[in-house]
Amino acid sequence: MNKVITISRQYGSGGREIGGKLAAKLGIPYYDNELITRAAKESGFAESVFENAEKKATNSLLYSIAMGMSSYGNQELGFSNLSLDDRIYLAQSNVIRKVAEEGPCVIIGRCADYVLKDLDNVVHIFIHAAMPFRIERAMTIDGVEKNRAEETILKNDKRRANYYNYHSGEKWGLATNYHLSIDSSYLGIDHAVDSIYTFVKKLEK
């Protein structure tokens, strides 16, 4: 296995579970909240700041990703003048690049597909699902009340889309940004894992 796999996902689609099971099946590291812990440790920011970044994302076009990347890590070039959210994103992106350089792994969310878009050894996956499937998972896994489930799902998708669109300049969920898109409500979680596993293994040949 010589591939880094990024998984973007709709809320309630089971993307996190799929990613964990896929990493276990491939015998490679899995990064989700571990990225936050590591980014916090390396940057000096509190973990809670990273956890809240996506929740506060807006559609603002004021941020220039190109300028941010060129100044990252060097306060003399303007890193200290970026907003807190932008600095958090850049610190997290730095960690994503580091874990990708360390070897094969599965990375969940956090614009990882965009951050690693120029690398050849990366496979980008998007997980989506039908609303009834997502509602059931939101209720059983996250404890969301039935009458608030769909609203919660749409709100979380909106935040993820805003966060991704804001930082990448790309459109979240657009098929052309990914190598493989899977409907987990059609396949089921385990079959989705098997499908991605087969896809990745075929690429190695």
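(ticket continues) Second input and output from the same batch:
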Amino acid sequence: MVTGKTAKSILISCGARLASFDIAEIREITKYDELELDKLGDKKTALFLIISDTDDSYNFLVSMCYTQLFNILCEKADDFYGGRLPVHVRCLIDEAANIGQIPKLEKLMATIRSREISACLFLQAQSQLKSLYKDNAETITGNCDSMIFLGGREKTTLEDVSKMLGKETIYTFNNSETKGNSPSYGKNYSKLGKDLLTMDELAVLDNSKCILQLRGVRPFLSNKYDVTKHPNYRYLADYNEKYTFNIERFLNTKLTVKPDDVFDVYETDLKDDEEDKISVPSET
């Protein structure tokens, strides 16, 4: 039996969580399934989920989309394709800490890879992931086969990368000199372990360099790839403005008639429409 205060608390919580659905546009885009997430693993498809990077009011929609995507594709891989999708599905989750929490991501990162699904998380700093997923953050990063450090100054990230790189052996020696009636000289040699790159060295890493670690391979320093040298760079808007994606034109449903289009023209008379109307007397 639910008391009045408990029921009121439940209603208030539901009202707060479902407040976004008071917006007609939110109800409209969630009313019908137009994404066809279950078909992403059947053929090569590109799906873009674009949200504001300053307003997090609608982040829950992206979290819901990823949750359904992983669950649907895993079930389809098991039920129809013997455990592996015919086309690999790669999720590039940019600003992963700003789209809201994806439920059970720590478990999904360990299970989706066997179904030909992978997720690449892009973060400004590892502290963002720990703030969002708490104790599960290390489980999420531990299930990633590769990690690339592009530079930064966040303390937690620098500390983790420095530990990941390990230590190197350095040789040190000390000179001693004693002055007096019987002067003496001495020299001592010793071996010490030093971090391969300390936190202060990582903080000033050359902007053209990056550190990459692959599973089973020692981390190594590499040059960042120059995207302007990619053969498909000429198809980007940075190279030619005509390739700029116009979202307003894409969403515009107004028909544009071309000179060679063939269509039928119907003529109607408003007077005829008025005569066809049937008037129903109102009851008093």
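Agent notes: The mean pLDDT is 83. The first strand starts at residue 89 and ends at 93. Closing as not reproducible unless the customer responds.
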